[in-house]
Structure formats: structure tokens, C-alpha cells
Amino acid sequence: MTYDTIIVDSHVILPTGMIDKNIVIDEGKIVGLTNDTPACDHKINGNGLISIPGAIDTHVHYGVYSPINEAAKTESHAAAIGGVTTMMRMLRLENKFSNSLQPQLTTSSEYHYVDYAIHASIFTQQQIDEMNFCIDKGITSFKIYMNLGGEVGHVYMDMPPNSSSLVASKVNVTDELVEKIVKNAAQLGCPVLVHAEDYESCGCGIKKAKEKNQDGLSAWSSSRSPEFEAKAIKTICKFGRNYDCVIYFVHIGSERALLQIQEEKKLGTKIFVETCPHYLFKSEDDVIKHNAFGKINPPIREKSEQKELWNAINKNILTIVSSDHTPFSFVEKNIGKENFTKAPPGTPGGELLLPLMMNAALENKIKSTKVVELLSTNPAKRFGLYPSKGIIAENSDADLVLFDPHVSWKVNNHTLETKGKDCAHLFYEDEIKGKVIKTIINGKIVFDNGNFEENNDFAEFIRSN
Known about the structure:
Helices cover 33% and strands 24% of the residues. It is globular. It has helices spanning 68-81, 97-111, 125-129, 131-136, 175-188, 199-211, 216-222, 226-243, 255-266, 277-281, 284-287, 303-314, 330-334, 353-362, 368-382; strands at 3-8, 11-14, 17-20, 22-26, 29-34, 40-45, 50-53, 55-60, 84-91, 115-121, 142-145, 154-157, 167-170, 192-195, 247-249, 271-275, 320-321, 400-410, 431-441, 444-448, 451-452. The chain is built from 15 helices and 21 strands. Helix 1 crosses helix 2 and helix 8 (226-243) packs parallel to helix 9. Strand 15 (247-249), helix 9 and strand 16 form a beta-alpha-beta unit. Strands 8-9-10-11-14-15-16-17 form an eight-stranded parallel sheet. Strands 3-2-7-18-19-20-21 form a seven-stranded mixed sheet, with helices on one face. Strands 5-4-1-6 form a four-stranded mixed sheet, with no helix packed on it. With 465 residues, the chain is an alpha/beta fold.
């Protein structure tokens, strides 16, 4: 028998450790790990390279600052170059899902270069009533923004396909609405993803800063205390226990939030927790010079917080690392130069997710097997994609990354491909050891040592669970 592809002589990361095996691929699947070299149409030399399961980025914003017909192309292109083979989009729609969801799904299917799934954000009672409609369309997880309400309820929704105008909206995600979302999600058997910051407390903190004529990144960060995260965590976990709903906390970056989560777990709440590279590798002191380009919600905290995050990873409290990637243009982000409060929060980082974490492994900060757990295996298990994804094993999808641990490179707007490459200031000029050389998705080579395959016929919309 002749197979499609074989990767020879690479170091393969398995859950049990790293082994030297050849990976045999046929019809989009891994069909074997072997010491043999069977006949194949395409042979890839992996000598000196590490084979890693493709990263699953569980938290990506795209379609907000450019329509999905553009954003899916630019951001999935960048994701593939960074070793992300499945991206999970945080969809934000202003109107009824029955009116606005299908155009997003149809257009998405035409422009992605990597597999993708969707979390639907819920802002209104009308959208709560249509959560079942989302499930019928393959969307089985929902996002709650507890930071949006009252005076701080401004948000940009996703643009309609082929649009060129930002969709500004005012929302009010009250505790009453949050409880209703959790209750309905539990009845539907779906997890809720939660941005945990109490909007009333944040609004009060921002108002006090303005009254004192305080502005800029330092004032913004101090106005959003970790205590506001803990308050929101406590509120939604009570609802989670009452209705037996799985709560997934996104972008946790403070010790105070982690401590509250641990308390809620002891009370019986079903909780999963993610963090992001900008919290693991950067402190407030590192990013203060970037002003609006360092504006992120929740804010990047003091350096001491990083140690607590790494401890939480080692203790399996933080079990997933995602990018929270948001691709602004320079102009869109730089509006904060004149008016900081108008600068949109967030930072691009999707194509840095895997390189940054593998760099940490190469510097002996973390084991490479733990990197695979955090970026591939745990995300796949949490969202029902395992064992098709998240592992290198027989019968799993051939979503693979060949990584060269010997190459070093610097982050700047010339080495990134995202639309937001001019806004990735947090990591500019950082040197990263190790680089993605090839990215294979469903058995097809998408990225090959600087060359990108402009073909999206093999990318699929994935129904998560």
C-alpha cells in the first residue's frame, strides 16, 4: 500500500514524552507511528525537528475590525504560520441569531485556511431564547462578558460580511441576565466562557481615575482591581452551582482571581481556567511604555503575578493557554494616543502562542509535554475535539507542526503576518528560540518553511461540545 505522506526522523511529542518515530499520514489522518518507512507519495524529512500536535487556540477575536471575509483569511493565515491548526472564534452579534448568524457561517466556510469553531456571545434575552438555534448550527459554547454594562457597556460587535463599518453597540450584561444565560446553558448541556470583571466596580474605578485627572495605562490598570475579577467569579460560580453549569474562565491573570476560583471549586463549581502568554511573560512594568498598545482587559499585573500563574499551571489549576488574539490596525489602536479610554483593549498574539510556549520549554521553564497539554490536548478534551485533535496518535486528524528548536528570531512587524502586526508591541524585539517550519492541517501542508499554500478547500468548521 502507498500512503499519502510520511514524516521521517523527527522527535515526536506524545503525552508520555518525546519519542523518535516516523509518522504515516493517509486521507487526512495519522494511520501509524512506526520505525519503518512505508511507500508514500510525499516524504518529509524531519531530522532535527520536533513534531507537535497542532495548537488549538480556544480564544480568538476576528471579524470585529475587518469583516469575516477578510479577517478569516488574514488571521487563519497567521495562525497557520504560528502552528495553530484550529482556532475558536469569539463571535459577537448585535441582532437575532436567526437573522445574522447564517451569513457569518456561510462566509466563514469560504475563507479559512485552518479548522475553526465558534463560541457565541450572549448579550440579550432575545439571544438567550435563540441559544438552541446556535446549537442546531454547530455552536455549542457561549460567552458572557461580565465586564460590559452600565457606563462601561460599550463594545464593538462583529461586522456583517463584506461590510466596511465598525458596529458600535451598548450592552448591559446584568447579574440577572448572567443568571438566565447560565441557567439556559446548563439545560442545553453547554459550557459558558466568562470574562470575569464586575462592570459596576470597573465603571466606578474608571470614574474615580478621571476625577483625579489620571490617564494612560497605569491609571487604567489600577482602576480595574483584581478584586473586581474575584467579585464577578464569586457571582457567576454561585449561578454555576445552582444550575450545574460548567464555567470556563477566560484570560485569568491575577493571583486574587486564582484564589477565588479555588474557593469556588471547593464549593463544588465545575470550573476550567485559561490564561494567555501576555500574562505569563509580561508584567505591568514591561508594558507601561507601550501605553494604549498595552491596554488589555483584565490588565497585565505586577511581575509577582507571573510566578503565581506558572505555579497554577504546574498544579493543573490553569489547564489551557490561549492567545485572546485581537487584530487591530495601527490607526484603530493608536486612537488611544489622543484619548486613552477610546483605545480598544486587546493585543494580537495568535501566531506567537506556540512559539512563546515552546521557547519557555527550551529554556527549561516548562516541559514540552506540558506545552502540548496546554495548547492542544486539554483544549481538545474541553471542547469535545479529542481524540480527533490534540494528540499525535493513530486515527487522529493529521494536524501537525514541525518545529525547529535551533532557529532564533525576533518579533516585529516584519516577522508577523496578522493584520495586527503593527500593534504587537508587547513582544516587539523579543527574541524567540524555536520556529514553526511546517504546518499540516488534515494531512495537507499549509505552511512550508516560508511558503504559504493559498488553498482553503481542506479547512473545516468544527462542531465543539
